[in-house]
Amino acid sequence: MEKDEILKRAKKENKGADVADKSAQQKGAWIAYIVGVIALILVDTVNGFVLKNVNRGADFALFTMAFSVFLVKYITLRKRHELIVAIIFGALAACFLAVWILQLCKVI
Description:
The protein is mostly helical.
């Protein structure tokens, strides 16, 4: 079997998708998520010190993203620990949503 034939078969098995491209995209998404978390921690910290108030809307968005990621992983892989992590992130997202709504209503 020649190199070209092996490549053709691999592309056919992967339905034309480039495995290296998928891997790079997944790695980029993971790094972007980590950078987003670090940026949010920085923003929350500065707001806490300077404004004496932290808007929890961005925290809600971040934890909702994490919930979505782990829920999709659970649906795809059916691993129980993925479901547990999704539930934890979902609960945190719900808490931050409640706090954010209370902030918007000037209760907090």
